[in-house]
Structures are given as structure tokens and as C-alpha cells.
Amino acid sequence: MAAAELSVEVVYSARPGELDRVPLRLAEGSTVLHALRASGLLERHPEIDPGSQPVGVWGRKCPLSQGLRDRDRVELYRPLTVDPKEARRLRYRSQRERSPKRP
User: Fold this and answer.
1) Model-level pTM?
2) Of the ranges 8-12, 74-78, 88-92, which one carries the lowest mean pLDDT score?
3) Torsion sign over Cα 12, 20, 51, 57
4) Beta carbons of 19 and 13 less than 8 angstroms apart
5) Number of domains, the chain
């Protein structure tokens, strides 16, 4: 009888609009760290530091030791380059400047 396998994917976005997505088949009982190592992302993106960079499963932060379930999506989060409030202000300001003036 074959050992049970999990189908998971690991994703990382090094820059906005760029996505590195790796589908994997792992042994049952694998953790987030196992998925990161098997994905090859750590070799392709040397800027990733799994010890200090937050990771999550389906948008929820979790430890590297968390076990995975079938069809999980492991996500590596990069640091924010702009404060979200400041980004919102900039978007609002640019939209206001582009919109036609009302009489």
C-alpha cells in the first residue's frame, strides 16, 4: 500500500505582479518548512529568510512547524515597502488629480 500524499502549492511574490508558484506532492505529515525546502524557492530567491520572514497557509500566518493538509497553499510574505495608509493616500490623491473637475 502506497503512503498517502498531500497536494500543496508554495507561492512567493518577489515584486508586485510577479508570482513564483510551485505545485508539490508531499508525504502526509509534512510541514510548512518541508514544503519550502522541496519547492526550490529558497534557492531561486536568496533574499528569502524563512527564519525571520513570515509565512502562512491560505493567508493566515503560521509557524514553520505547522503540519499541512491536502490542497493547502503555503505563502511567503515579503516586507511591506510602503506603509498601507500612505499608499492609500497616494492612490486617492492620484485619482483626485485625474478625475475631471465638477462645476
Assistant:
1) 0.75
2) 88-92
3) positive
4) yes
5) 1
